[in-house]
Amino acid sequence: MQVHRLTLLAAALMLPTLGMADDGVRIYGRVDIGPIYESNPTGDSNFRIDEVSGNRLGFIGTETLSKDLWAFYRLEHRFHLDDGTERSGRHGGTQFWTDKAWVGIGSKTYGALSAGRILTVGNSIVGGGDTEAMTDSIGATNSRKGRIENNLDNGLFYESPWFQPGKGMKLRVKAHYALAEVDGIQNPYGLGVQWRSGKFLLDTGYQHDVYKDGSDPSKEDRKSNSWFTGAGYDFDSFELKGTFATSRGYEGDVSDHSPYRMKTAQVSLNKDFGPWRLGVMIGRKTETSTSGTKQPNLDKVAVGYWYNFSKNTMLMPTIAYERKSGSAYKAGSNGFGEDKDKSGNLYLQLGLRHEF
Question: Taking 70 as the threshold, does the pLDDT of residue 78 lie above it?
């Protein structure tokens, strides 16, 4: 199947190391925007100009230290293209390097270790785009990785080299751990495995997040345990992909925990027609809130037919429809706006993206 340069670039930029790159500094980025229509908006207008995904400007630096070792760093700033403001950090904080800020050392033999504001395992392997047809668009599945933290401050991230357990097979391990409590998160960790065999890929992992009560550190304010899996197969004429995630935990004092659970599943495919790329996705999310109340089921279907003007520029017409259903919806919890009689939301966007 034809390999799209923008797809490969998006996946590669999720990696913490890029250790085999030439020595020096690489500047990269993404800018995208377009008109969007929303049938049931939270605001007053059905139309607005908005970004397609998180616009970004980043720097990747590498230096060869020996035949086996290299040093590297990564800095990435996120911003809103429609008004030029920076994207907020965790819980609305102001972090200039919102998404990535780390430095590390890598070995061809032993793998790579980085430290700083890191990606978590779930964000790195399931959120990297290999197992989803329409990543970074309105067609993407909500909470496809479950209820996890995407980034961690004061963290360590390890990525092993690729191992070959058999002919035509390879696998590697990723792990993260945060050394100190930051913004209520204490000792989170995650472990994941990526496996490749011919045209088949499988990513799977586990992530543990514990949040402490700021007024009483001896109490656990919230805990979330998440398992996630992504898979894909290239049939030459099209690519079939899918993800599944489940998160279980609670919120509240240790003596009075409120249960929480989320499950997400989605199936998608990509097919190329010359410079055009078709993406189709169907997904569902079920959720029990931290108060123990059943939330509406969220079903989503999306179709994108994206046109590559060049290796770096893409036109992204996309349509997506979300619908909430179930007994919780009948209780009046819609989430799409003031009109609780509407259970669905239709999105139409004509986005333009340039990457460099």
Answer: yes
Pick the closest to residue 16 from 161, 124, 89 (CA basis): 124
Residues counted in the chain: 356
Rounded CA gap, 183 and 117, in Å? 13
Residue with tokens 């989803």: 132
Whether residue 190 has pLDDT greater than 90: yes
Q: Which residue has the higher pLDDT, 26 or 338?
A: 26
Q: What is the mean pLDDT of residues 279-299?
A: 79
End-to-end distance of the chain based on CA atoms, in angstroms? 24
Report pLDDT for 77.
93
Structure tokens belonging to residue 27? 């500047």
Strands in 235-312 per DSSP E: 239-251, 258-273, 276-288, 297-308
Question: Which pLDDT belongs to residue 222?
Answer: 67
Residue 293's alpha-carbon distances to 249, 262, 289, 338, in angstroms, are 14, 12, 5, 21
Residue carrying structure tokens 């590390």: 104
State the CATH class of domain 5-32+54-274. Answer: mainly beta
Q: Report DSSP state, residue 185.
A: B
Provide the residue ranges of all domains of the chain, joining segments of one domain with +. Answer: 5-32+54-274
Residue 97, helix vs strand vs coil: coil
Q: Please report where in the chains the tokens 């950090």 appear, as a residue.
A: 89
